[in-house]
Amino acid sequence: MGIGVFSECEMLKHCELEEGLAFIGEGAFTNCSVLSEVKLPDTITAINAEAFWGCMELESLELPESLVVIGEKAFYDTAIKSLKLPSGITGISFEMLDGMSELESIEVPESKADSYKDQFGELGIEIKVY
Description:
Elements: E1 14-16, E2 23-24, E3 37-39, E4 46-47, E5 69-70, E6 82-84, E7 91-92, E8 105-108, H1 113-120, E9 126-129
Parallel strand pairs: 1-3, 2-4, 4-5, 5-7, 6-8, 8-9
């Protein structure tokens, strides 16, 4: 999915992305302010920087196990309260959580728990291990 493809679509409320899609481009959903539901396919490997920036109604997002990279500020200014990071993630930006003022907890795989605690431990969110 290309850069900014749905950017500024102020009427977009729901989006179900098709299987086969490999990545969400930078700023793909920027300022889709009423977007409240996104279904990601099991083929997504990357959510690039600022992909969901300004999606203020987005309260939850299920990340597929295929996901390996999350770009910086991917979820900036969303209403997401909790995230479960897939076990296959290899690339994650410290700034991934920037601007997530509603975030209360993040679930991380046991194999990477220490790394995530070091990276996100000072942000005041609960880190749960699965």
